[in-house]
Amino acid sequence: MQKFKSVEDLVNQLKPEKPVYCIRKKSVFSASSFFQKNFPGDILYAVKTNPHPLVIKTLLESGIKQFDVASVEEIEQVRKYSSIAKCSYMHTIKSPESIRKAYFKFGVKTFSLDTKEELIKIIKNTDNAKDLELFVRVAVSNEHAEIDLSKKFGALNSEALGLLRLAKQYGEKVGLSFHVGSQCMHPISYAKGITEIGNIIKKTKITPDYINVGGGFPTIYPDLIPHNLMEYFSEIKKGLENLKFEKMPKIICEPGRALVAESGSTIVRVNLRKKQKLYINDGTYGTLFDAGTPNIVYPSKMIKENSSKIISKKMTAFNFYGPTCDSMDYMKGPFVLPNNIKENDYIELGQLGAYGLTFRTQFNGFYSDEIYEVEDDPIMSLYNKDISKTTLVA
Question: Model pTM?
Answer without folding.
Answer: 0.93
